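Question:
When you can, review this sequence-structure pair and walk me through the tokens.
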Amino acid sequence: LYFQLPSDSCKYLNWYDIEEHDVRGNQLHCPRVREGPSKEELFFRGEEHPLKERKQATDTEKWQKKLQENWENCAELNLSFQDLGDLYQVENFKRILQRLIRVEKLWLVDNALTDLSAIRLPRCRELNVNRNHFTSFKQLPKIPQIQHLSLAENNILTLNGISDFRHTPLESLILKRNPCEFQESYRQLVFSSLPNLKMLDGVPKLPEDCSPSDIRFLFRMCTIL
């Protein structure tokens, strides 16, 4: 039997360069970060005719394009499931992340990301990077205001580097389905490294998660599950 793939309906579509539009980046709920194929690739595909020869962009045109993207004023953004299979896609993706200076909530799920340590997100309070390829906390972006961080289904081997978040307002952390979850005294080690943390893997801080010196203080608190 023959079954069509979901992408088959787009197999014979041509690429077009839309030069003028008024759609801004912060109006897109889940955009795909993409650039059109190169001129050489279009030539080998036999599709070079749809794209007009591009004229040299002026400074004004470059500034107008930057305003149209408007990433600097984006507060919430979902860039999940990007399928970043080529180097030029990854570079363009990171270029956008570097411009998210005001983003507060960011979702980057299932993008095969390995290292965002060069990225700084100064206002980000909620970051979801589930189902990527991070192996260490050192590979995460700089997120000094982070409160909720989700790292489920990555490949984080140890808890080395987790103390870098000690001086952040991090309250909730998800590390489910990472190798570090099987480390002995896993929950105790996480909570001792992050004194502000209130919830780990969806479970609030419990007396057995504390070191002996912290148990006396915790018994004064009421935990409602």
